[in-house]
UniProtKB/TrEMBL annotation:
InterPro entries: 6-PGluconate_DH-like_C_sf, DUF2520, NAD(P)-bd_dom_sf, OxRdtase/DH_put_Rossmann_dom, TM1727-like_C_sf. It comes from Streptomyces chryseus. Residues 307-332 have a biased composition (Basic and acidic residues). This is Oxidoreductase. Residues 303-332 are annotated as: Disordered. Transmembrane segments: none annotated. Gene3D superfamilies: NAD(P)-binding Rossmann-like Domain, ProC-like, C-terminal domain. Residues 155-280 form the DUF2520 domain.
């Protein structure tokens, strides 16, 4: 890629009409770096060096980047025109500073990090050394296997770059199969928090749900949850809060109290998470008119009491024929 003429790269990605290909290096052979380098190789770029320390990193590099030599980070920068810094967020500032201080960064070198938390400001030491800084964060979960390369097709990338490198950043993302989404420097931490809230916490919730189903005697919790969670995710992406269903959105305080009682008995470690999510769900359902105020009062009392309803208070709720469309017993 000729970064001085990125417009051509952005407009035409046909293999017969591509700009010059780049040599690619990877610093940090975790789950992300080798997959991105493999995707760039499919676009015609040439991985030439990778660094990694752990046995798992070495195996990933050997699988996704066969015949690419494993070298030190400094040697990666010496060999590559485009360097992917794919290390944990907390390690990135120190890595950039160290590489710049040792003279490993070359003028005109593309230095790309994949951290969601940071924009290009973290690359300031490399910029002072003459490098061209880009922040390209794939909004995707990675396994460290070849399936990751396929999943990049249509994957959004959170992109932050200087204006003069904007089209070059777009071209790189498109060549990896992704879609660029521009994120301002100051918005990067919020952007990353949003992704972590949705994706990382989802894994925890699904894993807990499967454990509870196994405890309840369900032999194939994954098969049971698959269609349900797939539909819930699709509905949420299409309709947002209007997709809320279940006992909290209906205001069934007695059912919620029963849930918490069972969790206290069989999975006490899940109680705090259930209560926190139930309170948030109730607040959102109430704000969007899905939860009636008169039903919300008892529900919020139960949640405030940690799921222990007043023993003298009758269970609240409504019969199914009083439930709004789509919120009856068949829609939990």
């Amino acid at each position: 890629m000729n970064v001085n003429a990125p417009h051509a790269a952005h407009e035409s990605l046909d293999p017969r009409d591509r700009p010059a290909r780049l040599t690619v290096g990877v610093v940090g052979a975790g789950r992300v770096g080798p997959a991105l380098a493999a995707a760039l190789r499919l676009a015609g770029h040439r991985p030439v060096a990778v660094s990694g320390v752990s046995d798992a990193s070495v195996r990933r590099a050997a699988t996704l980047l066969p015949d690419v030599p494993l070298v030190t980070p400094a040697e990666v920068l010496a060999r590559a025109e485009l360097v992917l810094l794919t290390v944990p967020d907390d390690a990135l500032p120190g890595l950039v500073e160290g590489l710049a201080e040792t003279g490993a960064v070359r003028p005109g070198q593309l230095i790309v990090h994949t951290s969601g938390r940071y924009g290009t400001r973290v690359l300031e030491p490399a910029l002072r050394a003459g490098a061209l800084p880009l922040a390209l964060h794939p909004a995707m979960t990675f396994t460290g296997t070849s399936v990751d390369v396929q999943r990049l097709a249509g994957c959004s990338f959170g992109v932050t770059a200087p204006e003069e490198l904007r089209l070059a950043a777009e071209a790189l993302v498109i060549e990896m199969g992704g879609e660029p989404e521009w994120v301002a420097e100051e918005a990067r931490p919020l952007y990353h928090a949003a992704l972590a809230l949705g994706a990382n916490h989802l894994v925890t919730l699904v894993a807990q749900s499967m454990e509870l189903l196994r405890t309840a005697g369900v032999e194939a919790p994954d098969r049971m949850l698959g269609p349900l969670l797939g539909a819930a995710l699709d509905n949420a992406l299409r309709s947002g809060d209007a997709a809320l269903t279940g006992p909290v959105a209906r205001g069934d305080a007695g059912t919620v109290a029963a849930h918490v009682a069972q969790l206290r008995e069989h999975a006490p470690q899940a109680v705090a998470g259930y209560l926190a999510m139930a309170r948030t769900t109730a607040d959102r359902a109430l704000a969007h008119g899905l939860l009636k105020p008169e039903l919300a009062e008892d529900l919020l009392d139960v949640l405030a009491d940690g799921g222990r309803p007043d023993s003298g208070r009758p269970e609240t709720g409504r019969p199914d024929d009083d439930a709004p469309d789509g919120a009856g017993r068949d829609d939990r």
